[in-house]
Amino acid sequence: MVDLKFKLKFLWGSLVLLTILSTSTLAANRPPQLSPIGSKEILVGETLSFSLSAIDPDQDQIIFAGSGLPANSFLNPKTGLFSWTPEINQLGTYLFTFTARDNGSPRLSASETVPVRVVYRLAQQQKAWGLGLKETETIAETSSITDLYPKIKKIEIDGRAFSPSQTVFYTSENPKIKIQATSPYHIDKDAISVLLDGEKTEISPFSDVQTFGEEKKILSLTFMLSPKDLSLGKHILNLEIGNELGFSAQSLTLDVGKLRIVDKPLVFPVPFTPSPGKELNLQYSLSKNAEIEIYIVSSSGEIVKRLSASEGEEGGKEGLNKVGWDGKSEWGNYVGNGIYIATIISKADRDVLGKIKLVIY
């Protein structure tokens, strides 16, 4: 800015500019310089605290401000002191913009956008009850609140694992359902809901409970359902498990019907070489207890061996079964090399439940 000073002289009836006496220049206002802050990371429940620092080349007064700041944070506009103690529901990554503004003319400013990551960590310098971890180990770390929701880790029905990709699970009239839930934060026992066909279902006392810290927060637990005398047809089971942050849900369909093999029957080892002390294992899962017969048939159609299992015993029990065969025929000799078929039959109605290919070599 240029300041001009003039000397004026009046003549008769006129105004005449005679001389420019002097000139001076006023310096333009310059913005403040904000010291770099850099990204920050803070654990839930701990306090993030730092001071903003700025200098003004014109010695103007500086006022600090911030945008995008949480309601429970504090920024002193004069000293630049910022502090924040994030709560558990404030997990995530934030972008805070801090500004230093002078009082010059015009008012100028400098800003920096600072990434701040809020982390939940379980748990250094503590020991998880029942988990056998040393004090310096970390069990879990996340900045996503949904990671802290309880999750249904495993569902077993009559000893068979349920996969979320399954739409229907074949079972008996009296299934035994085992459910395991986990959370790196906490499971609220009172936030567990089990509905079968829309009706609240009784669950067993909790078992395998793993807790953490002085508050004994529950990280894992297991419980059982044992519905009785389900009618033939499909039944909808809805599970919800939660805590104060949120919940997870799982829905599955139980199909109660006639005796059947569920999942794919397996055989091992393949190939099998009969010899003393060796055994071939047939593995299959039944939807209910039943008397079972297994015919092992050669490629020529000859029945070389008959195996049987009583209802409720290994080979004829609801759930997973393993039946062994030593490779000997009905006549006590080892069968020859070749392809054989093991046919699994319901003794009560002679229905063929499944077939397994055997390789003897």
From TrEMBL:
<dbReference type="Pfam" id="PF05345">
    <property type="entry name" value="He_PIG"/>
</dbReference>
<protein>
    <recommendedName>
        <fullName>FlgD Ig-like domain-containing protein</fullName>
    </recommendedName>
</protein>
<keyword id="KW-0732">Signal</keyword>
<dbReference type="InterPro" id="IPR015919">
    <property type="entry name" value="Cadherin-like_sf"/>
</dbReference>
<dbReference type="GO" id="GO:0005509">
    <property type="term" value="F:calcium ion binding"/>
</dbReference>
<feature type="signal peptide">
    <location>
        <begin position="1"/>
        <end position="27"/>
    </location>
</feature>
<dbReference type="InterPro" id="IPR013783">
    <property type="entry name" value="Ig-like_fold"/>
</dbReference>
<dbReference type="GO" id="GO:0016020">
    <property type="term" value="C:membrane"/>
</dbReference>
